[in-house]
Automatic annotation (TrEMBL):
Keywords: Cell wall biogenesis/degradation, Glycosyltransferase, Golgi apparatus, Membrane, Transferase, Transmembrane, Transmembrane helix
Domain of life: Eukaryota
Protein name, entry field: Hexosyltransferase
Nucleus in keyword set: no
Species of provenance: Stephania japonica
GO MF, one example: polygalacturonate 4-alpha-galacturonosyltransferase activity
SUPFAM superfamilies assigned: Nucleotide-diphospho-sugar transferases
GO cellular component: Golgi membrane
Record pathway: Glycan metabolism; pectin biosynthesis
Transmembrane domains' residue ranges: 37-61
Amino acid sequence: MQIHFSPSMRSITISTTNGFIDFMKIKVAARHISYRTLFHTILALAFLLPFVFIVTALVTLEDVDNCSSLDCVGRRLGPRLLGRSGDSGRLVKDLFKVFNQVNSEEVPDGLKLPESFSQLVSEMKNNQYDAKAFAIRLKAMMEKFDREIRESKFAELMNKHFAATAIPKGIHCLSLRLTDEYSSNAHARRQLPSPEFLPLLSDNSYHHFIMATDNILAASVVVTSTIQSATRPERIVFHVITDKKTYAGMHSWFALNPISPVIIEVKGVHQFDWLTRENVPVLEAVESYHGIKNYYHGNHIAGANLSDLTPRIFASKLQARSPKYISILNHLRIYLPELFPNLNKVVFLDDDVVIQRDLSPLWDISLGGKVNGAVETCRGEDEWVMSKRFKNYFNFSHPLIAKNLDPNECAWAYGMNIFDLRAWRRTRIRATYHSWLKQNLRSNLTMWKLGTLPPALIAFRGHVQPIDPSWHMLGLGYQFKTKVENVKKAAVIHYNGQSKPWLEIGFEHLRPFWAKYVNYSNDFVRNCHILGE
């Protein structure tokens, strides 16, 4: 190939001697094309034309007998230049027909499958499979791998469920050591609060927080974070309720680790005169009923048709079977007006929350005559966490549920609630709660499965005042994609879900918000090797 420039630079002649193109002449207008543009054009042509000449020669030489015209050369050359091939297109169409046919057929029983794609290719070569035989084996392999992935996912969820419901060794150690300390150390048994502060336990000019828990470490984090976030901690009274087996250890912790100037009361359920079996007969039934015990403590896989469940639905069903839902501590909040007859307004906190902002403004929020100030969970940025309506908690195929409830009614959150106890005492909330619990027991738990929130959603209907969502952020115990920047803005963050921050399965990027309130220098915490930051 030769390139010749005219003396005036007004034309360029490109000639070749390969027999396909004799010459190409380009005229250049003097005033419309710059030398820079001309240089780029020449450079492009210098690279492009040899490629065109070579491909054209190859196409012609491949099938000179069947392609003797320029039109034929163009038809064969075009797809190659454009990255298409007529033969490959037909092959894809043929394969699609075979795949479509095989998709509606069952895989033969006993079909021996290769373990890998490379083995499949090797068998195709050795056994000369036709397209249908290849498609059947490919389908069978994909179905097998899909089953194995589902099984491993369900096994992972089961293991996570067991990890979430078990007591970590460090926390169990902490409870045992503090219980032992209670029996041997007089300081661990000192009265809480001191006698001079007893009148403040019913003083409504103070801000009263109530928490029911058997987790000593979690309780310490809730109290510590509340105090450190408060602008006036001297106005705070904390009422910590626990069960009989944990009482000694819980009392020891707060007696040996006083948090001045806050007033802390630790009380066991056995110390409330009102909590008799006569007053809470439904709870006795819940704890003793064989079917209930078997449901929460039995085999969670037996009888379950996993093929009809997605992993997410299976995970939610497992969470609903947590034994904590039949604990009396989980039901105590429904008896607050009777347990604290002299208090008017309280804030109830779950033990898996962290306080990041002063909560005293909660006492200034008007509930408008309602009983329960709570964050609604049917709308929000996170479509998984904040999309809860009644249909997420109740079985609307049950006639009683379908008759009395609206599936699209907005749900609200337990975990951080403002309760007006004076307004509560004028209602029938507790009676309604008991009535629906009995109905669900009679129906063999077919009306709802998930713990204490469903009967509360019914009992508090018409008594809930929505509060700003920034007060209470949920989902830190199951939403891995929780944004850290959103966590920092919330007043209360709630690790509801299985991945509690004190467990190994807790989310690493969310644990520091909780762990910074753990006193890792404490001898009991250090000696029990509590999970660190």
